[in-house]
Amino acid sequence: MTSVEGQTVEQRVAEIRRRIAEAARRAGRTEDSVTLVGASKRQALERLQAAWAGGLRVFGENRVQEALEKQPQMPAEVEWHLIGPLQSNKAKRAALAFSAVHSIDRPKIARALDRHAGEAARSIEGLLEVNLGEEPSKHGFSPSNLVTEALPLADLEHLRIVGLMAIPPFEPDPAAARVWFRRLRELRDDLFSDAAWSGRPGYLSMGMSHDFETAIEEGATHVRVGTSLFGSRPPLAAP
Q1: Fewer CB within 10 Å, N- or C-terminus of the chain?
Q2: Which tens digit of pLDDT belongs to each residue from 127-160?
Q3: CA nearest 103: which of 119, 118, 90, 117?
């Protein structure tokens, strides 16, 4: 078994699932209302395979090329999500490689994904990334313009917008992040109250290794957990 800092990856998957179940219970929800997305950026293939053996079924990659390299070496049943920023020139490959894209940060990307998915006779799901803190270093729709900018995207044929995603300003204390998670939930409620979005599930992709339990308590349907599952990422290779 693959060991990470004294625990196997399989044990880590089980522990994260236990914590998800407890957080969901505190919120009056069921464990299966939360999807665990293994954030596998730069993780060794053997760790992904161990996580699959431990029951993880959804893997989130930050880069299209890295996902394409890993996919042939993983079971065909893996559900691949893109959770990192997407450039327009990578949209065609992303539309073929992923079943869901969490990081749609502007209308142009949504329309490109819709077009390329249609060309491939595919349907994919998308979440709109919101820059909750309006930080210059981060991507995403502005909270103040979200409803107006998103509305035309309800008519896309091959990309179905199903929710919102955010990477809020980092808070060392997970409890302090609650206000950001609550804000994303409120934005989701405002957006999906319009009849144009009728029938959409209104997913909330929020919460990572250090604060996913708080995110679940505030309504997260997808949590993106990396280091707590797989251990520390290897450093980037020198140029």
Answers
A1: C
A2: 999 999 999 999 999 999 999 999 999 999 999 9
A3: 90
